[in-house]
Amino acid sequence: MAGDSLGYIAALDIGTTTIRCQIIDNRGSCKGSSFDKINLHYPDPGSVEIDPDELWESVVLTVLNAIKGT
Known about the structure:
By secondary structure, this protein is an alpha+beta fold. The chain has one domain. 24% of the residues lie in helices and 39% in strands. The protein contains one helix and five strands; from the N terminus they run βββββα. The strands form two sheets. The protein has a three-stranded antiparallel β-sheet, covered by helices on one side. A two-stranded antiparallel sheet has the order 4-5. β4 and β5 form a beta hairpin.
């Protein structure tokens, strides 16, 4: 039956200062979670930037760490 499958969902939340990932099973239980801080850069007064390569690396690391918790 489809309801008996062992599927998982990765729920990813990328906010202004943190990245969070939770791995949820088909019963709605959290099987793994992880978070990381986003590295913010302040090139000029009143300016805030996020390096897209750093952000991507953090996203991948956060998801992998959440998966390791399953």
